[in-house]
Amino acid sequence: MDAGPKHSHQDRDGPQFVPLGFRHLNKETWVVSKNRHDAGERLNYVNTPHVIAMVGLPARGKTYISKKLSRYLNWIGINTKVFNLGEYRRHATTAYKCHEFFRPENKEAMAIRTQCAKDALDDVCTWLDNGGEVAVFDATNSTIERRQLILDIVVKKRGFKLFFVESVCDDPKIVEQNIMEVKINSPDYQSMGADVALRDFLQRIEHYQEQYEPLDENTESELSYMKIFNTGEKVLVHKHEGHIQARIVYYLMNIHIIPRTIYLTRHGESEWNREGKIGGDSQLSPNGVKYAIALANYINGQNIKNLRVWTSWHHRTIQSASGVRAPQERWKSLNEIDAGVCDGKTYEVIKREFPEQFESRDRDKFAYRYPRGESYEDLVARLEPVIMELERQGNVLVVSHQAVHRCLLAYFLDKNSEELPYLEVPLHTLIKLTPVAYGCKMEQINFPIEAVNTHRPKPKDLPTSFDSMGIKSTNMEPGFLEDRFKTEGKDKKKEGLDNGSGKIANNGDATLPT
Hints:
The protein is α/β, with parallel strands linked by helices. The chain has helices at residues 62-75, 85-92, 107-129, 144-157, 172-181, 194-211, 242-254, 271-275, 286-302, 315-321, 347-353, 355-363, 376-392, 402-413, 479-484, 490-493; strands at 32-37, 40-45, 50-55, 80-84, 134-138, 161-168, 225-229, 234-238, 262-266, 308-311, 328-330, 396-400, 429-436, 439-446, 472-475, 497-498, 503-504. The protein has 16 helices and 17 strands. Helix 13 packs across helix 14. The protein is globular, with a radius of gyration of 25 Å. This is 6-phosphofructo-2-kinase/fructose-2, 6-bisphosphatase isoform X3. In the C-terminal section; belongs to the phosphoglycerate mutase family.
């Protein structure tokens, strides 16, 4: 029975992406490497280390793409690191003077820049030799000569795979926006005013344009690459090789820079939450119903443009979102982690009945798989289609579960596999994620509705918390409930969702249970 609001909805489970660690191995090409990453054991199957080399003029979003790609690959378990050439150049030279350093005629500066590139590539190769899997070389790499140097070192000398990603942008508004948001605040311009920095950077771009040679299938036919035009309006792919490159291409085809907000919240407190049981498909508690009403009134009051609502298939998430006036979709991928034989049990019962399993989970919570159930690593794989679709979307409210939101937050906040299972996601809290230049700003809105605490801290170390991440927190005032809620007559109670505790109206303001 669909207990949700009468919006059109659909199951948004697209093709499932199987993590590298669970793919069948081709004995002729795949090499198993077991490395200790993020202080946790994770098996990754990678045939050959990869170098992803960026290409493009300054202020075309190369660093944005590099950081975002690195965050994604690390999240799915591929050990990835960004090597930014600008940092090498700043380390090798004295304080930045002006754009003259980038003139093609400046032979001394050109020699320094070339040596910095060689030093960075040496570090890239050393890192890959010592367990790295994908290195992202963030630089302009804007000439055939420079790309040939990279090819000689990375492929011909070291035997790694090489894939170029060129960002092409001829929209002056996008370029200027990138300069104003990021470049004038870079270390190069710390001592300059904004206007002076803008003029200098535009002149720097002109110097690069004098020598710029875009990737071309005729002059560089042997290279594997993709070209992204105007932040995703068009994508061209040439000779991509293998699973990792295919995965990178698909990911980069889905990202965009349009301003939007992603809201994450757990369902309202459930009856099983109150009883300390994990898993299941229980109904909301009376306090959970209050949160569903508060959430609906808050979101509806924000008038968020083109908002979409995603829930899992569990009743408690559908109930919690039922009062929100927006198109709703159900995702099986958003269901809570499968606790297997432990489903419906309290942690005390699990510890008593399965002491060895309980201890194993405490030792490595990310990799531990419930008997006949899932691990957090499995859950990350299950959520990859959700991440892909979130990257494509505008404003979205995701109503799901504690373990699911931990995985989603780890992606957006760039948290490693050791931190992920201990991220705090309290009940009756709305998390607001706003993508910014090189990351994601996070705020939490706490609703004054009582709920149990379902967070189990890390046995020895302190868990990662909102406070330690420096996240803005907003507490809704107690008067918020009285100001926002309107108690309706008995005729209104017949509308909406009957969950055993009260009713939530599908239209108009949400209604408190009586």
